[in-house]
């Protein structure tokens, strides 16, 4: 890509955002930034240090020396690869809770915007097109039925050997959807100029081809 491009992919959990964002980044040979993993990393560090969501002083102190990076598909927190520790239902819930905290959002949004100033990136999350990059060149809002999203997450957890039930995953997902969509600070919503992509009945390949065709055709965003 000749100039810096910012591709924002928003949507609820289990819609396929991360999978598609990684494929798009690989195809375009640009960096993928998993913003959801950044919030999960913060949640994980809070849990490890016994810091509650109401402890604003403790959170600010923790954030001051928190470093989050991505390399080779890995999420790295303070020099440690934490991929296997941040995809549990417990961390998912805590990540949703801490993402509503102003100090956490300010810190991570600052880091995300800095990345987008220096290089072309694909970012997926819940407020990339509405808050982090409201002027992103390409915006997509990816979703699917809650049952399909829960099934995907349930299958993913089973493959990792985690014991849970479909009903538990569905309930956790519904709770997180509610929290994300009703929080006061930058709630999850579709940007007015974001293209809606319903992945319920689409294969990964179909979604990727659809999004890539729009990007390559320059049919979306502020070009």
**Integer-rounded radius of gyration:** 17 Å
- Quantity of strands, as a count: 8
What is the spatial order of strands in the main beta sheet?
2-6-1-7-8
Uncertain regions spanning at least 5 consecutive residues: none
Question: Could you say which structural class the secondary elements and strand pairing correspond to?
Answer: alpha/beta
CATH topology, by name, is Rossmann fold
The shape, in one word, is globular
Query: Strand-and-helix sequence, N→C?
Result: EHEHHEEEHHEHEHHEH
Question: Would you kindly provide a written description of the structure presented here, covering whatever features stand out?
Answer:
The chain is an alpha/beta fold and 223 residues long. The protein has one domain (6-214): 3-Layer(aba) Sandwich (Rossmann fold), CATH 3.40.50. It is 50% helix and 15% strand. The protein has helices at residues 17-28, 35-48, 56-64, 89-98, 102-118, 128-132, 146-159, 166-182, 204-217; strands spanning 6-10, 31-34, 68-71, 74-77, 80-81, 121-125, 138-143, 195-198. A five-stranded parallel beta sheet has the order 2-6-1-7-8, with helices on both faces. The two termini are 13 Å apart. The model has no long low-confidence stretch (mean pLDDT 91).
């Amino acid at each position: 890509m000749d100039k810096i491009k910012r591709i924002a992919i928003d949507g609820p959990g289990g819609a396929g955002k991360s999978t598609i964002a990684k494929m798009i980044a690989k195809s375009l040979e640009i960096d993928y930034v998993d913003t959801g993993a950044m919030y999960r990393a913060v949640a994980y560090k809070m849990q490890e240090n016994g810091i509650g969501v109401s402890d604003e002083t403790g959170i600010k102190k923790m954030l001051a020396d928190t470093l989050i990076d991505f390399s080779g598909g890995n999420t790295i927190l303070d020099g440690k690869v934490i991929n296997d520790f941040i995809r549990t239902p417990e961390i998912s819930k805590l990540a949703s809770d801490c993402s509503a905290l102003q100090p956490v959002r300010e810190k991570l949004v600052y880091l995300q915007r800095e990345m987008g100033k220096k290089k072309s990136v694909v970012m997926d999350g819940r407020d990339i097109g509405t808050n982090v990059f409201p002027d992103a060149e390409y915006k997509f809002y990816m979703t699917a039925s809650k049952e399909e999203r829960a099934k995907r997450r349930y299958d993913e957890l089973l493959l990792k050997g985690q014991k849970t039930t479909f009903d538990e995953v569905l309930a956790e997902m519904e709770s997180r959807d509610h929290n994300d969509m009703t929080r006061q600070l930058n709630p999850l919503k579709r940007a007015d100029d974001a293209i809606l992509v319903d992945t319920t009945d689409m294969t990964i390949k179909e979604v990727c081809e659809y999004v890539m065709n729009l990007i390559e055709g320059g049919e979306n965003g502020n070009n």
